[in-house]
């Protein structure tokens, strides 16, 4: 597409987006007032909203019309750099005298800190931040900043201008695809549109599984017709579906044989088979079994109804062994399926998922009673699963002890557990914990956050369900009383995770969101210890991203990150910390410039106290991963992720376009 038609198309799309946004924000009166603008920008301070209003309200009537809104926001998104900076300058020039005084800048910095909910450090209060900014930006030392001086300061940090544009545009007119199109002059490297996002192995396995199901169904239909032509077609369909149920019922156990998968992961098969997708495969087979079970029952009942009275049908369904076990099978698997849905598992009622999933024992018993031929399909997987269970029970019987427990900020509890005898784990592995004082029979999986070389066994546990909340209350109560009550613990594991592949990579990107950082905490500590020891890793460069909503969550691993900064003698690691609740728009431009000035002076970061500077707002993954991809080209850069599914989908799509292998930690 030539540049002129492309630009015309972009302008039309931008205009349509802005008009829709105005209609959404303005309400019934057809204008946007200060209150509506404050809500649109997500601001806490009304004064800041009034400053934005004064900057874009041409006729000074205190409200925005559609023309004013479209004109100013259009410049902010698609205008020149000077137009964008003029917007910020007018925002900061409270009295409109053509310069920004120290007092005006100080007020904006202080409000930006409050907006981001950042606790000021004694050495980095708003006044000191403002003085640092004036020291580098006020070239003529007259105590105020002209537009040219502000522009010169921003030109040294071009990313700030891009962040400002994206932030304000996304608050006011959320259309990220359009914004990326407007920003993207050069074409980004893209994979073929048909290339799978997670590589070919999951696709090949899925297609084979699908073909097996189709083949079994077709074979069952043909075999049934050859055996007896007089049998009702619905009866033939029901029986053929029953064979598919046998096949999928046998497969259901394989993805949850954790010990087997951990051993396979350590062999060459771990690089070929899609073991990282085992949990997803288990869910797909589970969904399929529910559908097959309902279809199987419906076909048989419909077939029986054709030649028998209603009373006979009821007798067949409820009073015969095959009919009753069939009904119970459907009830059991539907209950298991419903309480395994993500909205239950990720809620505060995780225990509902845990206990209803124990009904698998009833389901397999009923399946054998309903159709003894199920053993021909599922006998080997059932035997393997039973062996796993016996081995797991013997390992679980070893008692351990919680040696240290601390309640950290943002609802995270840190546990240090004495490793059981013979417990040997790898970086990024996970284990199941049972603490009888919290719940006698419940086991919960958590990633090990310590490095195996450290000799410790540490877990960082986020309060989400009843069990984790009860654990946190227990720890908080002990801390308040100043006593350390002993806690007996049992550990089942360790089990491997996608993080095990990290040590096979030459270049890697680690992305942890919130408590999803735990596997990478273990991996990073292990990497540095190996690099500084006698076992240097194959990994040549690691780029670590940690995203948190607030300032306090960075405290979970602040000491570890500080140690990594000091001990990374080979410059193996690049750290990128992102506070996603922080603003990066025009309203916080001064704060960002001040933080850059403090960082240039060698001061610790305002947010974390580390040498690494924390980025405010959400990362531009297309740009940041693209830069890393180009830095190491033509070598492969592997991306490892642990965090919420929505963010995983977004980053996976970017990795697909860039041709970067993507691995996701799942539970």
Structure commentary:
With 667 residues, this protein is an alpha/beta fold. The protein has 4 domains: 3-183, Recoverin, domain 1, CATH 1.10.238.10; 200-391; 398-496, Elongation Factor Tu (Ef-tu), domain 3, CATH 2.40.30; 499-581 and 617-664, Rossmann fold (3-Layer(aba) Sandwich). Helices cover 54% and strands 12% of the residues. The chain has 26 helices and 14 strands. It has helices at 3-26, 34-41, 46-56, 66-78, 81-92, 102-115, 126-137, 147-155, 158-172, 176-183, 200-227, 233-251, 258-265, 278-307, 310-319, 321-339, 342-345, 350-356, 360-370, 374-396, 466-481, 518-531, 558-567, 589-600, 621-632, 645-658; strands at 100-101, 144-145, 399-408, 412-417, 430-434, 444-447, 458-462, 487-495, 507-513, 541-548, 573-579, 614-616, 637-642, 662-664. The longest helix is centred in the middle third of the chain and has 30 residues, at 278-307. It is globular and about 95 Å long. The model is unreliable at 181-197 (pLDDT under 50).
